[in-house]
């Protein structure tokens, strides 16, 4: 497919700007998900070329591969899970390598899908009404799990995409809000996003939390029921970011700025509904997501087929690619991710670790590229979940200044006490 040029101003596209660091071909890894739209659009529709950049997009099979190939310099930049840079700066995981995120790829896109077998049991055994909400679903699942324990049945197995992922933390948050301990009452395993629907159909897993379009693929195949969306858990929850090595960013400052400008323009374009038909066609290409154009188009519109029975749901702004400063890498989001790592025993708690976590997100690079006028006016570290329309599903509010009390305030957790970790990073 030839590279296209998006006409976002109504006139001819502007000529490419000259990069004093030389012609730049950036090798970029990505996973086939709709939340890679901004990166794909920047490559496909001329936004990168206008900034003197060429994006060589490489589709990968797992987040661990993306992490390792960025660390080993096979990639210059990467489509990454929002917690991955935080984990890297904390030295977590099998191959931690310093990674920063100067740009977020937007908000939304995740959902939790359970097998139709399990959902039918929830509806029949727990009296779940058809119009139940996300919290109702979690509580119904808790009743089923209690009955399964009484009868000596095996633990249910649920899939997430990566241990340090928004999917893992959102699935755990949803389970815990329903009174379920995700470390004791169910089993969580890693399943690559494109394999989730097949794994559900085969009975290898009983549910999953993953990004679009794979939830809808499962529901339309008749093997899954969507029971919660990211917006139900926390609308502003960080999702995917552009990750890069700090040393690469330091030695290529102009290229980083040009990249952010290109991605910002692509994000604006992706947000416009009139562009979604063209975007969906590009994403459906086998080089990218290789899924139905129709499913992708409906996902972009937030039109959900919850199951094969015809139950539907429309989620306004299910994907937000640009508006509301969706691309701003806010350090308080990184600190919320860190709080969940502590909550689930992945990370020790210390002030130095909190500083390292916050430093994974780099609003300074975002501002350097786009200017303060394109950045939010409120503080980079703010209270999260306190505003109408942006609440956590269980009513908690995250104040980064009270991180120990926040973690301790959850009834379901497996947290280390704050201060138990070293004061040194």
Automatic annotation (TrEMBL):
It comes from the Bacteria. It is found in: Endomembrane system. The keyword 4Fe-4S does not apply. Its main location: membrane. Keywords: Cell inner membrane, Cell membrane, Membrane, Transport. Coiled coil: none annotated. The keyword Cell membrane applies. Pfam families: NMT1_2 (PF13379). InterPro entries: NrtA/CpmA_ABC-bd_dom (IPR044527). This is ABC transporter substrate-binding protein.
């Amino acid at each position: 497919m030839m590279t296209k040029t998006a006409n976002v101003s109504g006139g001819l596209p502007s000529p490419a700007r000259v990069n004093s660091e030389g012609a730049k071909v950036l090798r970029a890894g990505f996973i086939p998900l709709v939340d890679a739209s901004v990166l794909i659009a920047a490559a496909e529709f001329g936004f990168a070329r206008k900034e003197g950049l060429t994006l060589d997009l490489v589709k990968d099979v797992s987040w661990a591969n993306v992490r390792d190939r960025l660390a080993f310099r096979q990639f210059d930049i990467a489509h990454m899970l929002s917690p991955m840079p935080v984990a890297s700066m904390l030295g977590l995981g099998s191959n931690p390598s310093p990674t920063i995120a100067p740009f977020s790829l937007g908000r939304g896109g995740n959902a939790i899908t359970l097998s139709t077998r399990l959902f039918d049991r929830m509806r029949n055994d727990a009296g779940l009404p058809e119009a139940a909400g996300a919290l109702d679903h979690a509580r119904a699942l808790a009743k089923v799990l209690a009955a399964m324990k009484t009868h000596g049945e095996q633990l249910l197995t649920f899939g997430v995409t990566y241990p340090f992922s928004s999917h893992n933390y959102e699935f755990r948050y949803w389970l815990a809000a329903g009174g379920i301990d995700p470390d004791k009452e169910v089993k969580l395993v890693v399943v690559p996003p494109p394999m989730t629907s097949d794994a559900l159909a085969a009975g290898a897993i009983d549910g999953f939390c993953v990004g679009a379009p794979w939830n809808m693929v499962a529901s339309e195949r008749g093997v899954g029921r969507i029971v919660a969306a990211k917006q139900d858990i926390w609308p502003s929850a960080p999702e995917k970011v552009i990750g890069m090595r700090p040393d690469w960013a330091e030695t290529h400052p102009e290229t980083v700025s040009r990249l952010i400008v290109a991605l910002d323009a692509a994000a604006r374009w992706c947000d416009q509904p009139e562009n979604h038909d063209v975007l969906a066609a590009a994403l459906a290409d086998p080089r990218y997501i290789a899924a139905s154009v129709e499913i992708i188009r409906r996902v972009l519109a937030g039109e959900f087929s919850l199951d094969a029975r015809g139950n539907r749901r429309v989620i306004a702004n299910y994907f937000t690619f640009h508006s509301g400063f969706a691309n701003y890498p806010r350090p308080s989001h990184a600190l919320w991710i860190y709080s969940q790592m502590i909550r689930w025993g992945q990370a020790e708690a210390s002030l130095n670790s909190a500083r390292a976590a916050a430093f994974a997100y780099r609003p300074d690079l975002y501002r350097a590229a786009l200017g303060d006028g394109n950045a939010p006016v409120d503080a980079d570290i703010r209270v999260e979940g306190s505003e109408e329309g942006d609440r956590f599903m269980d009513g908690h509010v995250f104040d980064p200044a009270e991180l120990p009390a926040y973690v301790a305030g959850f009834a379901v957790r497996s947290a280390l006490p704050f201060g138990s970790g070293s004061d040194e990073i």
